Amino acid sequence: xxxxxxxxNYRPCVFKDMSTGDQFITRSxxxxxxxxxxxxxxxxxxxxxxxxxxxxxxxxxxxLVDTAxxxxxxxxxxxxxxx
Length: 83
Fold this sequence. Notes:
By secondary structure, the protein is an alpha+beta fold. The chain has one domain. The chain contains 2 helices and 4 strands. The protein has a 4-stranded mixed β-sheet, with no helix packed on it. A hairpin with a 5-residue loop joins strand 1 and strand 2. It is elongated and about 55 Å long. The protein starts with 10 loop residues before the first strand and ends in a 5-residue tail after the last helix.
């Protein structure tokens, strides 16, 4: 591992998904102004719009938007290629 390439302020932070309220602690050097207390320890708080807890791909709530039957045309054209 190379020396002197990591930032000096690399520390544990709490990342919070604002749409679901899920939180996780990981190391980061993101600039924050807010803090939050987790298990009696105060951490810098980084607010996120979306994470794996709320992203449609990871939650299984993916919506397939089909305009003018394009998805069906694609599937019909390539349905025998993977076999």
